[in-house]
Design goal:
The chain has about 450 residues and is of the alpha/beta class. It contains 16 helices and 15 strands. The strands form four sheets. Strands 3, 5, 6, 7, 8, 9, 10, 11 and 12 form a nine-stranded mixed β-sheet that branches. Strands 1-2 form a two-stranded antiparallel sheet. The protein has a two-stranded parallel sheet with strand order 4-15. One of its GO terms (molecular function) is DNA binding.
Amino acid sequence: MLLYESLATQLRQQIEGGILRAGERLPSIRQLAANHGISTATAVQACLQLEREGRVQARPRSGYFVRSTTPALPAAAPVTRRRKPGMVDNPALQRVLDTLARTDLVPLHTATPAPALLPTAQLAAALSRQLRRQRTAALDYAPPQGHAALRRQITQRYAHCATTVDAEEVVITAGAMEAISLALRTLTAPGDVVLVETPTYHGILQAVAALRLKVLEVPNRPGQGIDVARLDTLLQRTPVRAAVLIPNFNNPSGSLTPDSAKRALLDSCARHGTVVIEDDIYGELDWSGQRPRPLRHFDTHANVITCGSFSKMLSPGLRVGWLLGGDWTDAWCAPSTFPPSAAPACRNWHWPITWRNTIWNGTCASCAAPWPTTGSGCAMPSCGIGRKARAWATRQAGYRYGCNCPTAVAARPCSRPRWQNVSAPRPVICTPAVATTQITCG
């Protein structure tokens, strides 16, 4: 355990034990450093860890204070449908997705930022600038790995969270899901076993099903993240070719896997010959101001493939993602020039896909440069109809709307209303469990 983790554990125990009560000020950074014989930087790291967990809050020029919290709901472990590998069998999923596509419902089921929070003006300006200054390059074929300027910007983003990435291993894709699909196609063959979380994003399940792979479930516990002990047990019993994991704010639970657990799961996967495919699409959405480190940061075995996207930061419609390939980069450069998502369009005309890849690669490169080095502003909850409807729906069920994970909605018992005169002008819809579980038992 690192020094800052040890200090964070001690402070956490004091908060849970009532020694430090809600509203009370933590010892100053200098006091913590002096009392525990550590540097001020280590003390700051410990406080930031507690802030990410929602236990303390920083006040300008005043220090850190214990947050006022209500008792959390029991963190029940997700139920795994089968204990042995099996094919993804979820016939109801497509019907659910068709229902979720309705436009007459308030969309609480999508992990997308509110349109008002997107940098629309900056994107429009960047696109116009790209067409004016680099007209020929914008309409020409893009390099197989994507534009060099965009790949450099991506490496700089990872440098902000102390993660070293070589621009030569960055491959630009048509969104994060294509990156995950490319990784699975390269690593696996039909019938291979892939480890996935339960619950997980339904797009991962669809990709696994399309490749005719078998899945093995590992629980992701609300507020705790991936169950590393269970993961190690599963890997001991069953040969697993790859593990597709979302350690930074799992979709749909929002759980953040602690750094210590990240190290443990990487050691376990490397020991059993399982390649880790990391979906880090939500990593930028931390509210505390310090981005959680991806698995790639802790990887000492060259055993992690990291996938990401601009969908949660710039615009969901851009469909510009990437993967950090490491030793597998050369295997992806050729396939990435013809993404699976391009096939339907190519039956009519191929230029829209090429145009999107070249135009938006250059646009994203120019937009990425001025990004803030802390958490994305898009992560903050908006005051629009989505939030009001969510508050209304949870209030009707006797719960209070709140949040202790950056991408999760936490429902907690409530004794008094938090919002007054809130109405839902349209029906609301959330993603049902059938879309996020691996196997439907008949």
